Amino acid sequence: MVPVLLKDISPCKQLQPYVRKYQVFRFLFGKEITPPAKFHSPRPEHCITFYTRDTQKFSYLNSTEIYAYPQCVINGIYTVPVYRYGGNDFLAIKVVLQPSTLYNLIKGSVDQLTNRFINAEEVWGSEVRSLCDSLAELDELAEMIKLIEVFLQRQFKKLDVYPHPIDKVAEYILDTKNDASIEWLANQSCLSIRQFIRKFEERVGISAKKFERVIRFDKAYRLKNNRPKYDWLFVAMECNYHDYQHMAKEFREFTNLTPPSLYQLEEKSPERSFGLSYIS
What we know:
Elements lengths: L3 E6 L9 E10 L9 E3 L6 E5 L5 E4 L6 E2 L3 E4 L6 E4 L3 E9 L3 H6 L10 E3 L1 H4 L1 H11 L4 H17 L7 H11 L6 H7 L4 H12 L3 H19 L5 H7 L5 H12 L3 H8 L14
Antiparallel strand pairs: 1-2, 2-9, 3-8, 4-7, 4-9, 5-6, 5-8, 7-10
Helix pairs in contact: 3-4, 6-7
């Protein structure tokens, strides 16, 4: 497998109702090098991530404790940043889920997973452990994705999935440039406002308004990474902030950093060591 890779891969047709995309991160550093840490900012996604080479570690902001991830983790939405420390031989395959998928997989409220993860073995036991062992023996990415897709299709076939209007609303918020009111979203879901708020947090993990805010923050962060020459005021306007100060307030809430400080920190991330930037 190539030593450096940042890539998005679309899921097969059968999995598209459950999976938005796969993200592949591959970095191979020399043994004499200590790989830089990655400041991982909040993102509007639930995901399942397979770490198939060196152990991945992490720490919470303002904490000196460093923890190791298991080989496969299931993440809820993060509204706080974490530092992630990859090994010299680092390969992660992240399965980015549709907003409602995690709720169906764990068969219950996902708010318990907000800003947290669980070891996938707690859900799938030896079945996922065997998959991780098989992935570690492979070198071809296409073969890895094929194994993961076979595993996922097997899990989804076991589910009794009953579509809920909230699921379509969550996808609408994620995919559409929109600042809809709670009243309008509840109306589209054929729910009272109180029912809508409760059901959305149960199935997505955070409130609809906070979900919109994380999406907007993430869009601004990635737009600047993609277009470094854009000034911050243009980024703020393009991402529907009232002004720069409004955007800066959101950045500080989600990362404890100003927009320029976050951008400077991003320039020190592992992918920048290879002249790359992950922006999708």
